From TrEMBL:
Short name of any one Pfam family annotated for the protein: Lipase_GDSL
Keywords: Hydrolase, Lipid degradation, Lipid metabolism, Secreted, Signal
Signal peptide as annotated in the record: 1-22
Biological source species: Rubroshorea leprosula
Protein name from the UniProt record: GDSL esterase/lipase
Length: 361
């Protein structure tokens, strides 16, 4: 290679590794969700659903932050792909002009329903997250000077919203604590969830949100915790749970069509996390995974009976595990989910468009 070639290569590498510098593709990114994307909001709560201790964060530059992962969550990686030079701060610590880049409102154990996750202690339900967002909007109005400027600004931001997992895991399929499982069929339950979800999403719209990425629920019946409890061979996913998740996801995708038809000034998309997940566990070697049915850190059958304990030693080969603990994907799995949400690799990954195009509309 000539000298010029070397210089070009170096420039290419520099450009790639500092690709996050400069203007992001959208001015701000607001995040709503549960432990899959919580980045510290639960640290201040009296809750069993906390991850502000090692080995959580073992592969994250700042160590344990409250993320339920060894490293980055999907929204951390999506923020990088959108060109942000830093992660979006949690609502609990974002102050002043920080909020103009967006805020992460997610809270572990939270659901669409108010009571979801209550056996774990404090949490901020989706309606609580929407209230916190409304409070943030009034601060944005104060910073930018008036409501029209704020509305124009917020209309360019991406809003990613992923709730529902806990409404199954820590509600519908937890008969010792909740009676929804006997009150509703899976179809009826999906309908009540979607109805409540619709109202809260409409509230976000009323407060300026225009670019929505609605993340479907994953295949909860394939989590190490469900495999440990309800799978005979510890490998076959729990069909009863996955089928309830699929009913919810189908309704959510249909809701995207409804919202797009009713609101010509907004764009809603659906992210098929379930499908991306199924693909990872059915073709693990494509992605460098060797273990799909056990957590890297955990206790008991499938490392899934008890979740990763404080100061427990996790597995060494974390890139080879789809799951970090009994419930949560590893950074390696989050990277695949985030990349395919941002830039679809299969037509079924994102509907009707992916996040990269949502940023451009
Ligand atoms: C869309 O509009 C139809 C007809 O007015 C209405 O029945 C439906 O509830 C609306 N859905 C949403 C999500 O706005």
């Amino acid at each position: 290679m000539g000298k010029l070639g070397v210089v070009c290569l170096i420039l290419l590498v520099l450009n790639f590794s500092f690709g996050a510098r400069g203007e992001p593709q959208v001015p701000c990114y607001f995040i709503f969700g549960d432990s899959l994307v919580d980045n510290g909001n639960n640290n201040q709560l009296r809750s069993l659903a906390r991850a502000d201790y090692l080995p959580y964060g073992i592969d994250f530059p700042n160590g344990p932050t409250g993320r339920f992962c060894n490293g980055k969550t999907t929204v951390d990686i999506i923020a990088e792909l959108l060109g942000f030079d830093d992660y979006i701060l949690p609502y609990s610590t974002a102050r002043g002009r920080d909020i103009l880049r967006g805020v992460n409102f997610a809270s572990a154990a939270a659901g669409i329903r108010e009571e979801t996750g209550q056996q774990l202690g404090g949490r901020i339900s989706f309606s609580g997250q929407v209230k916190n967002y409304q409070n943030t909007v009034s601060q944005v109005v104060n910073i930018l000077g008036d409501e029209n400027t704020a509305a124009n600004y917020l209309s360019k931001c991406i809003y990613s919203i992923g709730l529902g997992s806990n409404d199954y895991l820590n509600n519908y399929f937890m008969p010792l604590y909740y009676n929804t499982g006997s009150r509703y069929t899976p179809e009826q339950y999906a309908d009540v969830l979607i109805q409540q979800y619709t109202e809260q999403l409409q509230a976000l719209y009323n407060y300026g949100a225009r670019k929505f990425a609605l993340i479907g629920v994953g295949a909860i019946g394939c989590s190490p915790n469900e495999l440990a409890q309800n799978s005979q061979d510890g490998r076959t996913c729990v069909a009863r749970i996955n089928s309830a998740n699929e009913i919810f996801n189908n309704r959510l995708k249909a809701l995207v069509d409804q919202f797009n038809n009713n609101n010509s000034d907004a764009k809603f998309i659906y992210i098929n996390a379930y499908g991306i997940f199924q693909d990872m566990i059915s073709r693990p070697s494509t992605y460098g995974f060797r273990v799909t049915n056990a957590g890297c850190c955990g206790v008991g059958r499938n490392n899934g009976q008890i979740t990763c304990l404080p100061y427990q030693t996790p597995c060494q080969n974390r890139k080879e595990y789809v799951f970090w603990d009994a419930y949560h994907p590893s950074e390696a799995a989050n990277t695949i989910i985030a990349r395919r949400s941002y830039s679809a690799e299969s037509p079924s990954d994102a509907y009707p468009i992916d996040i990269r195009r949502l940023a451009q509309v």
